[in-house]
Design goal:
- It is built from one helix and five strands; from the N terminus they run E-E-E-E-E-H.
- A five-stranded antiparallel sheet has the order 1-5-4-3-2.
- The chain is of the alpha+beta class.
- Bound molecules: zinc ion.
- Zinc ion binds next to helix 1.
């Protein structure tokens, strides 16, 4: 299971988003030499997977889970690039 926590912006550390997942659901970011994954929950950002190495595995899991959901949603493929 992925554990999401409210994103805390660290003072003086620049957040760099370098990748956005399908449909813009998740963002791959780097901050202070660590990686983390962000998502917008409607009112603010949440983060998960923060760390040097663990984050990429979490990211791949999330992207894969998105693809599975997208395949199930095939009735409305215009909403997602994964279905095609
Ligand atoms: Zn998608």
């Amino acid at each position: 299971m992925t554990n999401w926590e409210p994103y805390q912006r660290a003072k003086g550390e620049r957040l760099r988003v370098t990748e956005t997942s399908c449909c813009g659901e998740y963002e791959w970011a780097c901050q202070g030499g660590e990686f983390l994954i962000l998502r917008y929950n409607g009112s603010g950002y949440e983060e998960t997977g923060r760390g040097r190495y663990a984050a990429r595995k979490v990211w791949e899991h999330l992207v894969q889970a998105h693809k599975v959901r997208a395949t199930r949603r095939r009735a409305s493929p215009d909403r997602c690039q994964d279905g095609s």
